[in-house]
Amino acid sequence: MLGRGMRARCVKPLRQRLPAWPSRRAVTTDAASSHAEKEHVPSEDDKPFDVRLSDESFETYELDPPPYSLQTTKAELKRIYSDMVKIRRMEMEADRLYKEKKIRGFCHLSTGQEAVAAGIEHALTKEDHIITAYRCHGFALMRGGTVKSIIGELLGRREGIAYGKGGSMHMFAKGFYGGNGIVGAQVPVGAGIAFANQYNDKQNTTICLYGDGASNQGQVFEAFNMAKLWNLPILFGCENNKYGMGTAANRAAASTEYYKRGQYIPGLKVNGMDVLAVKAAVEYGKQYTVAGHGPLVIEYVTYRYGGHSMSDPGTTYRTREEIQRMRSTNDPIAGLKQKLLDWEVTTEEELKGLDKEARTEVQKEVAEAEKMAVPEATPQILYEDIYVRGSEPQFMRGRIPEENYYY
Amino acid sequence: MLRNGTRSKSLEVVCSTRSFRRYSGNPPPARLNAPIDYSITPLLHHTAKSLQTSSLSSKSPAARLNLFQAINGALTHALRTDERVLVFGEDVAFGGVFRCTVNLATEFGSERVFNTPLSEQGIIGFAIGCAAQGMKPIAEIQFADYVYPAFDQLINEAAKWRYREGETGGNVGGLVVRMPCGSVGHGALYHSQSPESLFTHVPGLKVVMPRSPSQAKGLLLAAIACNDPVIFLEPKSLYRAAVEQVPTAAYHIPLSKAEIMKEGKDVTVISYGHPLYTCSAAIAAAEEELDVSIELLDLRTLYPWDRETVLQSVRKTGRAVIVHESMINAGVGAEIAATIQDGAFLSLEAPVQRIGGWATHMGLVFEKFNIPDVARVYDAIKRTVEY
Q1: FRET partner for A294 with CA separation of 20 to 30 A, picked from A136, A377, B208, B378?
Q2: pLDDT tens over chain A, length 407 residues
Q3: The Transketolase-like pyrimidine-binding domain covers which part of the protein (chain B) (predicted)?
Q4: How far apart are CA A388 and CA B226, in angstroms?
Q5: Which residues in chain A touch residue B226, judged by CB atoms under 8 angstroms apart?
Q6: Closest residue in B to A219 (Cα–Cα)
Q7: Quick check: A386 and B162 CB within 8 A?
Q8: How is B247-282 classified by DSSP, letter by letter?
Q9: Which residues, other chains included, contact A84 with Cβ-Cβ below 8 Å and sequence gap of 6+?
Q10: What is the dihedral sign for C-alpha A70, A73, A79, A85?
C-alpha cells in the first residue's frame, strides 16, 4: 500500500509536484478598508474618535480577535500619513542614489511596506523595542533616526547612524536593534530582549520581525519555543510580502499560514497594507503580552513593490501586472489618503501640503547627507568600537607591519 | 639514548621495542609519558603557603577546590552580587553535566538560573538579546563541540554588535559563553574538540581558557565584569582532576595578560589550558636531562592575547615552543609563531616549534595519540635546544 503510494508519487512529473498557484490570502489587502462616519469625526485635531476596521482585517489562530475598532485623532492620522510619505520618499531617494552609484553594496527597500513600519510605531512607545531584518530603513526612521543619518549610513559617511560602518542592513536607534543581515538571526535575539525586559518588570513589549523567507529558518522555531516556554512579552511578526528573495512563499514553505506557525503560540493575521489595522493589531498585541499572556505570532500581509534588493528587478518571479495591481489598488499611502478625504479628516489642500513638506524635508536632509565628507580609512576609524573604548588590546594587526594600529 | 641520540632517533625511546616484536605485549614502563600526577604538579597550589607566595596572595582564607567547584564559586559570587547576572543552558538547573552550576538554581531561583531547550543557536541569540538590554547572561554550551550551530550568532551578532550599533551606546558586553572543551581520553568526535582558534580569528570576542581552579575563578569573574563578550573555555579534564587552594573571597585576574609560571633563560614554552601540565612534566625532564633552563608561559587569554609578554620572553631566551591541544593547522600557535618571527626575529636561535593536535579528527581510540604528550613536547624542546 505504502509502496504503491510512494511509487505513484515518484512517477508524477516534477511540475505537478510544485504547486504554482498563489497561496490563499484570506485577509484583505485593501488599504482603504477601514471606515468612519463623517459626522462622528470631530472638528478638533486632538479629540479622539472611533474608526471601524473591515471585517476582513484579521484572521486569528487560537486567539480572540482584537476589537474591530480603533480610537484615534485627526492629528494622529495626519502624522501617520506624513510618516508613511516620508518613508517612501526616503526609499525613493535611496533608490536614486543607488542608481547614481553613490550608494554601493546591498540595499533593500521597503516601498509598499510602509504601513507595517508606521502602524507598528504608532502603537508603541519609545519604551518598547523593535528588532528586524535587513529591510529596516523605515523602522530606523520611525524609531528616531533622521533621514540624514540613515542616508548618510547608506552612503557610508561618518555621520551615518552607525558611523557609516554598516550601511543598509545595520541601523540602531533607541529601542531599535537593527537591521540585521543574517536571515532569521534576529529572532532569538528578540526573545532575549523580551526576557530581559520581563525580568526587569518593564511593562513593555518587544516586536521581533522577520520575513516570510526567514520563517523557515530553524532558529525562528527555537525562539518560538523559548518564548512560549518562558511566557515572554514578545510579538513575533512575519512581514509576509509573498516572496522570500526571488521565491514565492508557497514554493518555499510547507505552510504559508505564517500566523499559525507558532503552533502553540496564538496567531493573528493582519492586513498589512492598512496602517490602521496594523496599529490596532499591535496595540492589542501589546496589551496581550503586557498582561502576561505570553507571545503572539502576528503575520502582516503586505507587498513589496521593488525587487528583493537593488540587483533584483523583481519581475522575473512575478508578473508586472501583479505589481501594478497592488500599486494601483492596494497602496497603503493612497488608501489612507482616500480615507482621510472620505472622512473629511483633512482636505486635499492640506494633504498636498503634508506631501510637499515631507518631500522638501527629505530632499533637504538627503542633500546634506550627500555633502558629508567621505570618511578617511584611518586606522583610528577602522579599529574603533571592536572592544570597549580605552580597553582595547595594544594594537590590531594590519596586512603589513606599517598598517598595524596602536590604540 | 635521548641524551646522545640525534633528532630523528629521539622518538625511539617510546617505541623502541616495537621494531623487534610484531605482537602486542605489555609496553615498557613509560619514562616520559607517565600519567600526570595532579597531587604533586607544581602548577597547582597544594598548600595555602604556595598560594600566598603567588600573584593571588590575599588576606582571604582559602579552601581546597577542584575546577568545577571554583567555577561554581565564581558563578555564585556573580549571581549574589549582581542582579543582572543570569545563568542558563542545557541542564544547568540540575547542576549541569559537569556540576559547575550545582545548587545555583536552589539558591537564586528559576528566574535567574534555568534550563534551556536543546537549541544552541537559540541559546546564544537569546543571550545576546539579554545582554543588549544590559543584563549579564552567562550562557553555557554543554560541550564546546555543540557550539557550531551558534557560531553565526557569536560571529555575526555578538562580535559585531559594538561595531555596528552607531551612537546608541548599545553593546552585548555582559555576555559570557562558558563551554567545556578539550579531550578526556574517550570523548571521540563530538565531545573532545577545542574550537578556540575558530573564535580567536574574530575581533570583538575575547577568548579565555584557564589552567586551574584558582585561575578559573579569577578569570571567570573578570570575564563577567568585562564589558565585551567573552568565550570562556574550560578544560573538562581538569574539572575534577585539578584540586588546589582557592581564595574564598572574590578576585579578578586581568584578561589579555599572560603569566610567566616559571622563569627560565634558554627556551620559552608557551601554552594554555590543560597542556600546561604536559609542558610542566616535559620541562622537568628536559631541564634535568638537557641542562637547560626553560621558561613556561600561560597565555590565559587567547584573544586579544598578550604579545608583549611573549615577545619579551622570546627575546630573552631566543627559542620558543608553542603547545596546544587543538589542531595545529591555523591554530593559536600559528598566530603566536608568526608574531614571534615578526617581533623577535633577530633574537631567534632556532625555528619556533609548534606542538598541537594532529590535523585530523578525534578518533575514539586515538585521542591520546592525537593530543600532545610529554614525549612530543620534550622532543620539541630538545630539537629547539640542539638546533
Answers
A1: A136
A2: 344 444 444 444 444 444 444 444 478 888 888 888 888 899 999 999 999 999 999 999 999 999 999 999 999 999 999 999 999 999 999 999 999 999 988 899 999 999 999 999 999 999 999 999 999 999 999 999 999 999 999 999 999 999 988 888 889 999 999 888 888 999 999 999 999 999 999 999 999 999 999 999 999 999 999 999 999 999 999 999 999 988 899 988 999 999 999 999 999 999 999 999 999 999 999 999 999 999 999 999 999 999 999 888 888 899 999 999 999 999 999 999 999 999 999 999 999 999 999 999 999 999 999 999 998 878 788 788 888 888 877 777 777 777 778 87
A3: 65-241
A4: 9
A5: 388
A6: B122
A7: yes
A8: ESS-----TT--EEEE--SSEEEEE-STHHHHHHHH
A9: A114, A115, A118, A275, A332, A333, A336
A10: positive
C-alpha cell at A282: 499591535
Other CB atoms closer than 10 Å to residue B167's CB: what's the count? 13
Rounded distance between C-alpha atoms, residue B383 and residue B286, angstroms: 11
Class of domain A35-375: alpha beta
Q: Give me the interface pTM, i.e. the ipTM.
A: 0.71
Contact B117 A401 (CB under 8 A): no
Alpha carbon of B18: minimum distance to chain A alpha carbons (Å): 48
Distance of CA B257 to the CA centre of its chain: 14
Task: Pull the grid cell for residue B382.
Answer: 630538545
Q: Is B46 a catalytic residue?
A: no
Nearest CA to B127 among B221, B50, B52, B224? B224
Name the one residue in this structure whose C-alpha cell is 493589531. Answer: A281
* Active-site annotation holder among B77, B90, B120, B234: B120
Instruction: Tell the residue number behind the cell numbers 579599529, with chain if given.
Output: A383
Could you state, in order of their start, the residue ranges of all structural domains in chain A?
35-375, 379-407
Write down the pTM of the prediction.
Answer: 0.82
Cα distances from B50 to residues B21, B42, B63, B218, in angstroms, run 47, 10, 13, 17
Q: Rg for chain B (alpha carbons), in Å? A: 21
Interface of A with B in 280-319 (CB under 8 A): none
Task: Kindly determine whether residue B308 and residue A394, on different chains, have CB atoms separated by under 8 Å.
Answer: yes
Q: Is B107 exposed, middle or buried (0-12, 13-18, 19+ CB in 10 A)?
A: exposed
Helix-strand-coil split of chain A, %, nearest 5 = 40, 15, 45
Contact list, A178 vs chain B (CB under 8 Å): 164-165
